[in-house]
Structure formats: C-alpha cells, structure tokens
Automatic annotation (TrEMBL):
The keyword Magnesium applies. Residues 120-317 form the ATP-grasp domain. This is Biotin carboxylase of acetyl-CoA carboxylase. One of its GO terms (molecular function) is ATP binding. Transmembrane segments: none annotated. One of its GO terms (biological process) is malonyl-CoA biosynthetic process. InterPro entries: Acetyl_CoA_COase_biotin_COase, ATP-grasp, BC-like_N, Biotin_carboxylase_complex, Biotin_carboxylation_dom, Biotin_COase_C, CPAse_ATP-bd, PreATP-grasp_dom_sf. Keywords: ATP-binding, Biotin, Ligase, Magnesium, Metal-binding, Nucleotide-binding. Residues 1-446 form the Biotin carboxylation domain.
Amino acid sequence: MIKKVLVANRGEIAVRIVRSCREMGIRSVAVYSDADRTSMHVRYADEAYRLGPAPSSESYLNIDKIISIAKKSKADAIHPGYGFLSENTDFANRILQAGLIFIGPSAEAITAMGDKMTARSLMKKAGVTIVPGTDELPEADEDIKKLAREIGYPVMLKASAGGGGKGMRLVKSEEDLIPSLLRAKSEARTAFGNEAVYMEKYLLEPHHIEFQIMADNHGHVVHLFERECSVQRRHQKVVEETPSPFITPELRAAMAEQAIAAAKSVNYSGAGTVEFLVDKDRNFYFLEMNTRLQVEHPITERVTGIDIVKAQIKVANNEPLEMSQNEIIQRGHAIEARIYAEDPVNNFNPSPGLIRHITEPLGLGVRTDGYVYEGFEIPMYYDPLISKLIVWAPTRADAIERMKRALYEYKITGVKTNISFVQSIMQAQPFVDGNYNTHFIDDHIDELT
Ligand code: ADP
C-alpha cells in the first residue's frame, strides 16, 4: 500500500497532486529548486527537500537526486506530474530498480508512445487510423519527393522525438521539400538528440480532440470521454472544453473505441490521453498518446466527477478500477483556460516576476488550480503558467458566461497576464458558436489581442 508519495514536479500540478494525497490520507513529499523555495507546493506537502539550483537540469530533471530524496524520506511511490521527467523511460526504470512505485504506465508503454514513428506503426497494427504519411523516410531525394506527391501537399515534417508543439515543419510545395527536410533534421538533432523525421499529410482546418483513458493492472480500460483542444497558439493549447461542440454521438463512440484499442495495444496502465485530429468532414486520425496526467485533466474531472489523480494512485496500488464504462457519464459542460504570465500585446513574451496582488475568482462552478500568492516571485526558469481556471455549468452557453464572469473577477498585478486575451476568446463569434478549429487563434489574432 502506498503511504507516502514523492511529487517530482513543481507549480500548480505539484499542488494538485499533494491535494489528492492529503484527501487519501497519504503523506506527500515535495522537492524544490532554489527558485521555488517558497512555492505553495512546498508549503502544502508534509515534507519538502531541496533539489538544487534553479535550472531544471540541476533540479527537476536530476534523477539521482530525486531518487535519493525518495529513499531518504521513505516515500514508497513517485508521481511525475506532467513535463519534466513524466515521459522519461530512464526515470521510470530507475524508480522501479530502487524498489519504488512509479505512478504511471510501464516503461515499455512510455517508450512505445514516446517516439512518434514507433507509435504510428504500433497503432497501424492495432487497427487505429493514423494520419496518412510515411514511416522512416527513404534516402534518395527523388524517393522522398515521390512520397510527398503521393501524400499530397501540403505535408508536415515531424521530428519523431518531438513534443510540446516543437519539431514540426509545414511544406507547401515540392521546391521547399528537401531544404525543409535538412533543416528539420538538424533542428531535431539539436532539440531532441535524435534526427529521425517523418512526413504526414497536413490536415486542413483540423480539430484537436483527445480522449482521457484510465486503465488498471487487471485488464480493464475505460475512457472518460473527450476534450476539445483546438484553441491553440503555436500548436500549444490555450483553452479546452468538454464535451466537444464539434463531434456527434456516433463519432464520439467510434473515437472512444479506437482510443481504448490504442491503450490496450500497449498494455496501458493508469491515466493516459489519446490525441486525434479530426478534419472538417469529421474523419479522425490518431495523432499521439501522452502517457501521463494531462494539463487539461480537470475539465474531465468536472464533467465525470472522477478524481483522476486519486484514480492514478489507486491503479499504482494495484487496485482494480472502481468504475465501469457505463457508470461514467459526461454531465454538463466544463471549460479550462490556461492563465499565463505573458504579454499578449508583446508577442506573448513570458512575463515572470513578483506577484504584487492576486484575487482569484470564486463562486458557483469555479475552480482554480494554481500555486502562487501575493509576494511570490514567478521564476523565469520554467513554463510561465500561473494557474488553470476551470468552470462548469449545465450548458455550454452558461459555462461561457461563467468563464467570462470568473475572468472578470481574476485580478493579478506585478506581472503581465493573458487574462484579457482569454476574455476576448470567450467573446469571439467562432468560439461562442462552437465553430472553430486549430487555426482559430491565428486567423483572429488581431481581434483577440
Ligand atoms: P506535440 O507532440 O509537439 O504536441 P502533436 O503531434 O501533438 O505535437 O501536434 C500538436 C498540434 O499540431 C496539433 O494539435 C495540431 O494543431 C498540429 N498538427 C500536428 N500534426 C498535424 C497535421 N498532420 N496536420 C495539421 N495539423 C497538425
């Protein structure tokens, strides 16, 4: 039985995990860098240990140090959160070798899904529809060009090891193909230490729609429905909602079935997310699987009533899933906005610094997952996410009004934030109509900023 969990992360997600631990009567151990000494995750955990200097490479990515703290504090499990070491096979293996429990899937599942090319071929075998494209690219330029013509322009070059919206390159015509490929490879080598690049059809006006999966170690896999994540900037999500205003009940059922098949094909365990692109004719294609807790998991919690972090811990404890598929229902509508310390009018540059004043929204149907407070200094070393604002209401229209009200109440001074930008999104006609795709922000950037 897990009695003590070390949370190998920082910021809002570390606070989020510590909260579920406390409610389960499980002790929590925080780790922190010098820049996070006074962070809320340090205050809320039962114990806290210093990892090292601020840069991630010397703190939140230091596997040796994290494992030695886990041993010293007698933690029996490690929760990786998202980002940092959450999809690092070496980390998962080292935890197991140390005789500890990794709160996540097997190292094999992480490896299989962590490499986009490997995941594509596995999914194809499992009968999951993947985005039309190539496996490994051939050597000769002419062969590569021929493949691109078969797929049809525009095509997208993708780093197999890419992630976080990085390592993608759009190619509109044949004359750009080979030069773009050379650049994509060298960028992939620098950014991910792996120059493998493949080619995919570039889908026009797609939706990014993903399914939350929960699986236990006894062969049960369920889905917790979808999240519509098409409000993106630079391939990164800004606003997410569930249910998706775009998909039909038939499409939802078909996508859910494939999401479950994807998870089963890698003997998945714990919480995971199967991402799809859906084109304007409502054809859907597997994009990738994220083998960890997702930033946007709270909207799913809100409509299903399931605490995903608690469910992860129970699965790691070898307990069978508590819910069967027909007991899981989507009730009402939830929207999440990612609140960042950034300057929307100045190219969305990060705006770290001292929080002089903060008033977080409260009231019916409002949840904020954050980690800062008045007097806290948002470090410049990490992602500038301040909090996630999640609202719920019985209908989509009511949820949008509630989000607008909550954003109106949200006051932060000291750092620049994207609060007014998100407020503009809530008022933009395509969003209000539920008629938007992944190009929505780019297409309306002048009105939104
Ligand atoms: P990452 O792993 O970096 O997050 P993904 O493969 O999940 O990358 O893609 C992120 C986003 O990029 C998608 O949500 C979508 O907006 C865009 N995208 C990726 N592949 C395609 C494609 N083949 N066609 C059109 N858009 C794409």
